[in-house]
């Protein structure tokens, strides 16, 4: 009984400290940012996604797809995501197709944690889609050079239609955001706090969100010349690995 009584104040002190510590770390990071030690002023620049991603590729017809089913919904998506530029493009031939969706935020535009919350894991499931299978940090190569790890998903649409295969990447300052080995319909609390601290210290960094979709396994398209041309354009956005074997040209 005495041991239990003596442990009480220590446990209470630790509980109070666990609540205070994050606030102290956040305050210190804010001070660093305001003093100029946290990454400096942002330097936004024009990316011109529409010209970087090919409008025509060998063997495929191309069309740009609205971000929403109506003009109103497209405007709402733009307001929520608050991006600098976005491209939503479909490539089709015969009865097969694949889609590409790329969004760009310049430095200073959007907090990383907010961009990281707008993945198919959350947005699609909230719209009635169901995830049938998932793989994490999948490593692919392009022309012998590794790409940054991708999140792989297989989704079933809300009403009818074939399942959709998905690969997606979230790049922050040219590096893949680490979603962890889990389905991200709800943000991981530890990563959420980490993003808060990094934002306070480094500001809102440059970001891309890249998503490839198809009703056939995307791996089946990897050797197709048209699909490869699209992937090469994404390599120039930072999709090539930053590791020792994957330094972009």
**Rg over CA atoms:** 21 Å
Uncertain runs? 1-15, 24-44, 244-249
Residue share in helix:
25-40%
Distance between the termini: 68 Å
Largest sheet: 8 strands, antiparallel
Number of domains: 2
Q: How many strands in all?
A: 10
Helical/strand content category: alpha+beta
Mean pLDDT: 80
Shape assignment: globular
- The percent range for strand residues is 15-25%
Query: Number of helical runs?
Result: 7
Helix-strand pattern: HHEHEEHHEEEEEEHEH
Architecture overview:
The structure is a single chain. By secondary structure, the protein is of the alpha+beta class. It has two domains: 1-38; 42-239, no CATH class. It has helices at residues 2-34, 49-52, 71-81, 112-116, 120-126, 189-202, 225-239, and strands spanning 61-64, 85-93, 96-105, 130-138, 141-142, 145-146, 150-156, 164-172, 175-176, 207-214. A hairpin with a 2-residue loop joins strand 2 (85-93) and strand 3 (96-105). Helix 1 runs parallel beside helix 6 (189-202). The protein is globular and about 50 Å long.
Supply database-style keywords.
249 residues; alpha+beta; 8-stranded antiparallel sheet; two-stranded antiparallel ribbon; 7 helices; 36% helix; 25% strand; disordered N terminus; disordered C terminus
